[in-house]
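Encode chain A's predicted structure.
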Amino acid sequence: MLKAENLSLHYGSSKILHGVSISSFEGQISCLMGSNGVGKTSLLRLLSGTHKSTSGTYQLNEQNVTNFKAERLASMGVGYVPQGRMIFPLLTVRENLETGYACLKKEDRLIPEEIYNLFPVLKTMENRRGGDLSGGQQQQLAIARALIIKPRLLLLDEPTEGIQPNIISHIGEVIQHLKAQNSMAIFLVEQFFEFAFKMADYFYVMKRGQIVFEEAKSTINKAKIRSALEI
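Encoded structure for chain A:
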């Protein structure tokens, strides 16, 4: 589903990513972990089309999409939930969801009932402004907005950051539900260790813009991942 090889990224003269190779498949949750500032968010921005790589290749379904722009990747089914949520505070919940229509054909521009089934609070607050929602409600809105395009690849950047435990639990249930549909690959950047270990099928650890560890959950334990994070 997603295959990236030897991706490098520069911000001006600073090299942020150094030959990163990752993959993720339908029905699988891949998780990228690492401390702040190692390049995790930069990688997601590259995969979402908001930044360009300086070398390497990026494929979706065996199609080379290296340095495609964000709107083109979205139209191909790449859904992105950025760190900090980035909802529109002056738009209503419904209007925020409708911003996902931009890359859809006219006949597909509707809010599926499943969105409100997954996030009932959004139906209740449909006419409330996004800026009036709590942090956890805004995170649910950001995920729901990404689901409007019916993604085949869902990129999630720190979905538990600053969120109360009950909503973290709910978001976890939603992610597991999406995985069970077996229709999308989910690539998760996460620092909350227990949440990440519960969610993921495959782990990557990044340090200083490089992947220093990768392994399937089925062959490791928590201690091994914690050790990798301390490398």
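Strands lie at 2-11, 14-24, 29-33, 55-60, 63-64, 78-81, 153-157, 185-189, 202-207, 210-216.
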